[in-house]
Amino acid sequence: MPTIAIPESDLYDLMRTRLVPLAHMLKVMRLSLSDWNTVQSRMRPIVDAHLNRDIPFAQQPQDRLSLVLTEGLRVLPDMANYAELWPLSMYTELNIFDNIRHMHERRDKRKSRRSGRGLSLSSASHSSGADITLISVETSPSPVSTTSMTTSSQGANSSSGSAIDQKLAAFLRTDCGVPLTKTADALAALGISDMVTFNAAVRKENGEAFEEFIEKNGAQHGLTLWEIFSMVRGANKLRNSKE
Q1: Strand-pair partners of 132
Q2: Given a cut of 70, is residue 145 above it in pLDDT?
Q3: Alpha carbon distance 49, 43 (integer Å)
Q4: What domain count does the chain have?
Q5: Which has fewest Cβ within 10 Å: 79, 156, 169, 234?
Q6: Could you tell me which residues belong to the region Disordered (predicted)?
Q7: CA distance 80 to 222
Q8: Are 228 and 218 a contacting pair, CB within 8 Å?
Q9: Residue 127 CB burial class (10 angstroms; 0-12, 13-18, ≥19)
């Protein structure tokens, strides 16, 4: 008999669109970070095998969703303790949500390149007051300052920034989709300035210390909730990509 009920609809809606901090989600699901990582690693191939991840969750065929839950319960029998296997549905919806978001991001980047956004810093700064970041991942891997690569209409405020290397900058921009200057400052507080130290941090103790630090301190460096989620998601993908 299931003992853990589905959260109230308002909370569930926030959870399935990543608007609830991971730490709180885990409390609601009564899972440790390690447990949730196991759910993700075992459910991912099932979702890939049976669903078209380019289609929104609400439009997925019900028989295919039922098959995903059935196979998920087979590899994660403890999920029988949850009403309607809701953590498995939650993971499936988040998986599809992330894929569609990344698909749109990739499409927007292609459109930007076609529209000629590869302008020089000087010419682009005349047309927009927004921050503009230019990174060449083919250049020397020596550390670069996010300040020197960023121009801002904020004047004196643009002088702050921490140094990160090109590989880490490319990863944060492409795989996490987070702003470099704020993120570099947050990582610097954790002693991370390059891809080597970042990789070590997200793998140490299954990434628990890294995630806890970012979730607790990211906002102090100006990161929004969505940017914090994006950072944690990117770190999880890196950790699960290879040992």
Answers
A1: 151
A2: no
A3: 10
A4: 2
A5: 156
A6: 105-125, 140-159
A7: 40
A8: yes
A9: exposed
Q: Which long-range contacts (CB under 8 A, 24 or more apart) does 87-91 make?
A: 87/29, 87/31, 87/39, 88/39, 88/43, 89/65, 90/12, 90/15, 90/16, 90/29, 91/39, 91/40, 91/43, 91/47
- Judge whether 123 lies within some domain: no
Mean pLDDT score of the chain: 77
Q: What separation, in Å, do the N-terminal and C-terminal C-alpha atoms of the chain show? A: 38
In this structure, the answer to whether residues 148 and 56 fall within a common structural domain is no
Contact between 168 and 238 under an 8 Å Cβ cutoff? The reply is no
Q: How far apart are CA 226 and CA 97, in angstroms?
A: 13
In the DSSP assignment, the letter for residue 142 is S
Whole-number Å distance between alpha carbons of 69 and 66: 5
If DSSP states are collapsed to H, E and C, what string results for 54-90? CCCHHHCCHHHHHHHHHHHHHHCHHHHHEHHHHHHHH
**pLDDT tens, residue by residue, 123-142:** 444 444 433 333 333 333 44
Answer with the residue of higher pLDDT: 57 or 149.
57
Nearest alpha carbon to residue 236 among 75, 36, 73: 36
- Across the range 190-194, mean pLDDT stands at 87
Look-up of token digits 């020596």: 142
- What is the token pair recorded at 232? 């944690």
When pLDDT is cut at 50, 70 and 90, the band that residue 93 belongs to is: very high
CA-to-CA distance for 196 and 198, rounded, in angstroms?
5
**Residues 172, 96 share a domain:** no
